[in-house]
């Protein structure tokens, strides 16, 4: 199995790369622009591995993407490259539009060109996995779960850009027949998390961030495995959508309290919450929960690679 992983030097992407190379013995080409959140140190475990190659490139560079895909000749493209920090999207949305929307469009076009040139059996095996977020569905109340039929209702520039990229990915499947799979996952945490994100930021500052609701979190190493899918990926009722939820649910507040206790610190009630408490960010901090029942392999006839 030959797999291209975009954004592979990022938090979730590096977990996917490590899983594919070390656990599944897949041949992997990691593509990453190494912007502020990309870090080659997260790939140290596969550095020099015979099955891993690294390419520093921007997904918006159509010529570079076409060359990389045509040269590597993947069976899968797993597209994780994205701007993903909600607070940054509020203060600077342009980068999110460029990377998440224009970059996804560019990659889809490069993948379509490659796929059109494949032999029939290779075309049948090929998959383009577009990794997104459950934040495209907006916010929930005290109860309920997101499902495949939940209408899109993004409430930040970040989630709007990811919703747009989802629509492009699905449109390329419906219009051109490109075999696309879309994954919408709950919030993630774990090793190699970028320091601006909530859990490492909490640890670094030994504070509890007093939110206006609860986010639900899933460890990134657990996410890497169901993202590695075989030819039958997400073909339930002709749908190409995978929801990834959380079981058991772990609230943002509870998860923050754990590192604070470990650091022996108390919550600071006077922390700077100017961005966190903005109307848009308050909306983002309300519950984001995907129905875990649509994550289980049996529900979608999914199998891990290998």
TrEMBL record:
<dbReference type="Pfam" id="PF16363">
    <property type="entry name" value="GDP_Man_Dehyd"/>
</dbReference>
<protein>
    <submittedName>
        <fullName>GDP-mannose 4,6-dehydratase</fullName>
        <ecNumber>4.2.1.47</ecNumber>
    </submittedName>
</protein>
<dbReference type="InterPro" id="IPR036291">
    <property type="entry name" value="NAD(P)-bd_dom_sf"/>
</dbReference>
<dbReference type="GO" id="GO:0008446">
    <property type="term" value="F:GDP-mannose 4,6-dehydratase activity"/>
</dbReference>
<dbReference type="InterPro" id="IPR016040">
    <property type="entry name" value="NAD(P)-bd_dom"/>
</dbReference>
<keyword id="KW-0456">Lyase</keyword>
<feature type="domain" description="NAD(P)-binding">
    <location>
        <begin position="4"/>
        <end position="208"/>
    </location>
</feature>
């Amino acid at each position: 199995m030959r797999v291209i992983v975009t954004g592979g030097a990022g938090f979730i992407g590096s977990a996917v790369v490590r899983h594919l190379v070390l656990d599944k013995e897949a041949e992997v080409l990691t593509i990453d622009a190494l912007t502020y959140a990309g870090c080659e140190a997260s790939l140290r475990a596969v550095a020099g591995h015979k099955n891993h190659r690294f390419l520093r490139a921007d997904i918006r560079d159509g010529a570079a993407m076409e060359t990389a895909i045509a040269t590597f000749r993947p069976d899968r493209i797993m597209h994780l490259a994205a701007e993903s920090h909600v607070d940054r999207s509020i203060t600077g949305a342009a980068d999110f539009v460029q990377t998440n929307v224009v970059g996804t469009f560019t990659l889809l076009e490069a993948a379509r060109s490659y796929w059109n040139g494949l032999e029939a059996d290779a075309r049948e095996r090929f998959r383009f996995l577009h990794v997104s977020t459950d934040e495209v569905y907006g916010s929930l109340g005290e109860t309920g779960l997101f499902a495949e039929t939940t209408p899109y209702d993004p409430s930040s520039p970040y989630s709007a850009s990811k919703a747009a990229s989802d629509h492009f990915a699905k449109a390329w499947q419906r219009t051109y027949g490109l075999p696309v799979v879309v994954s919408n996952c709950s919030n993630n945490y774990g090793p190699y998390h970028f320091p601006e994100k909530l859990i490492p930021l909490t640890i670094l500052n030994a504070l509890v961030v007093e939110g206006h609701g609860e986010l639900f979190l899933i460890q990134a190493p657990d996410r890497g495995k169901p993202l590695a899918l075989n030819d039958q990926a997400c073909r339930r009722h002709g749908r190409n959508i995978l929801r990834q939820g959380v079981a058991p649910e772990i609230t943002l507040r509870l998860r923050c309290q754990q590192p604070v206790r470990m650091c022996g610190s108390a919550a600071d009630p006077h922390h700077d919450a100017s961005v966190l408490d903005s109307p848009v960010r308050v909306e983002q901090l309300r519950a984001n929960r995907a129905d875990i029942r649509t994550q289980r392999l049996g529900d979608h006839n999914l199998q891990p690679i290998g």
